[in-house]
Amino acid sequence: MKIQRSVFFVSDRTGITAELLGKTLLTQFPDVEFHKHTTPFVDTVEKAEAVVAEINRVTLQEGKPPIVFSTLINDDVRAVVTSANALFLDFFADFIGRLESELGLTSSHALGLSHGMGDELAYQKRMDAVNYTLSHDDGVNTANYNRAEVILTGVSRTGKTPTCLYLAMQYGIHAANYPLTPDDFSDGMLPKPLLPHHAKLFGLTIHAERLAKIRNERKPGSRYASLENCRSELRASESLMRQAQVPILDTTTKSVEEIAISILHATGLIKQVKS
Amino acid sequence: MKIQRSVFFVSDRTGITAELLGKTLLTQFPDVEFHKHTTPFVDTVEKAEAVVAEINRVTLQEGKPPIVFSTLINDDVRAVVTSANALFLDFFADFIGRLESELGLTSSHALGLSHGMGDELAYQKRMDAVNYTLSHDDGVNTANYNRAEVILTGVSRTGKTPTCLYLAMQYGIHAANYPLTPDDFSDGMLPKPLLPHHAKLFGLTIHAERLAKIRNERKPGSRYASLENCRSELRASESLMRQAQVPILDTTTKSVEEIAISILHATGLIKQVKS
């Protein structure tokens, strides 16, 4: 049996940051089974005391102190949580101190500046981008491509739609996508709606075996999903994109996050993300 | 003029974690204008040397060392990056050491365990959920609600769609949404397709002024967007949801992330997020 250990992610806001970084650290210990508890919105001393009671209860029950990852900003709340019987790892306290001394400034200790609405304009841009992406999915509304910042293309099930949604949701990028179908391969030219937007195009491709697997989950046993058809579609689409000098990314072993970051990196769109 | 300072986010993978936590820390210094550079996929000594050259170039140019946030796992790569003339803040090194001694184990130093495809089953669940959410948006495909884990309801533009997409993309939750329209308010009952799924329902509401603003951006000057109509729709929808004992969340000042976490928290939808 694996070693068991309880873990708490404690935050005065959503807990997304604490969870993300904490989980990344925990993946470095594959031999331990971690029991994870997330306690978001711990923004008062009372809520902090409830968390401490829960941590201490787990400590007693398991005979081992849990690991607590925290992104608490408020000193009073943090003081309460650190009183629990646990290994307390705080992602803010140490770094804020070092930044303060490097910058020669005192930090604002303000809450809610990430994962909140924060800068309302930036938030609005993200929501606009999500709406744009939803209404420009799968080759619809090509007339509005002048508003797109990037247009993903490639055959069905190469990851275009989730990548567009991720780019919109996380980065506020107006991302459209246009599927390449067998009809597009006959004359060796990019589909007409894409021609005026060549500079925004980014092509996705994938290994035929993986594509066949994904398509088979959707339409089992279909010609659409057959390895032979996947191979032929991929060969034709890659040749078309190469000929048209569209940059191509292989998504076979990449997550949506990795595809999105690769595109931002390759297109220089990341500059718009820079502040 | 604000104090200027350059910042680098350096990662051997996507850089998402380094950027997220780094930016959260930087928001604590509102009087400084940070110039941000993200360098993802720094996974070889050669790439690390290129990053160091760029950091040192910026140091020379600006006469001040940049701040470097890193999530580098590989010791050789990290050794190169730390040789740059900069304030080096590493989100892994310190914490990994403390975890190793608490757990009595050596960490695996393995790359790519977050934001990659990682656990392929979990990744597949997220992609399935995104597809489900896209095909169950805005009240379509109500016959498949048995597969939904949560069904968001509320009047148009309360945040249902982006919240569903976020829940699907980040947590692999099958989230559907069903809009409440004036037609639904006449008989004082929830719409028929929702009745068999009462336990999965979660209602969203918003202040009328904010709703009118959002709707006016979409359909300026319309009756749909008028403050009077927004007030009346919200009053009727809240009364309907209260009567049907559907939990209600006010999204007026909440981001999609905060709405999603609040729903996960309130419904106990995934155990990991529960406290």
Chart the SSEs and their pairings:
The structure is a homodimer of 275-residue chains.
Chain A: E1 3-10, H1 16-26, E2 32-39, H2 45-62, E3 67-70, H3 75-82, E4 87-90, H4 93-103, H5 120-134, E5 150-154, H6 160-171, E6 175-179, E7 201-205, H7 208-218, H8 227-243, E8 248-250, H9 256-267, H10 270-273
Parallel strand pairs in A: 1-2, 1-3, 3-4, 5-6, 5-7, 7-8
Helix pairs in contact in A: 2-3, 5-6, 6-9, 7-8
Molecular structure report:
The structure is a homodimer of 275-residue chains. Chain A is an alpha/beta fold. Chain A folds into two domains: 3-103, Rossmann fold (3-Layer(aba) Sandwich); 120-273, Rossmann fold. Chain A is built from ten helices and eight strands. The first copy, chain A, has helices at 16-26, 45-62, 75-82, 93-103, 120-134, 160-171, 208-218, 227-243, 256-267, 270-273, and strands at 3-10, 32-39, 67-70, 87-90, 150-154, 175-179, 201-205, 248-250. Chain A has a four-stranded parallel beta sheet with strand order 2-1-3-4. The radius of gyration of chain A is 24 Å and the shape is elongated. The first copy, chain A, starts with a strand and ends with a helix. The interface between A and B is large, with 76 and 75 residues.
Compact summary:
The structure is a homodimer of 275-residue chains. With 275 residues, chain A is α/β, with parallel strands linked by helices.
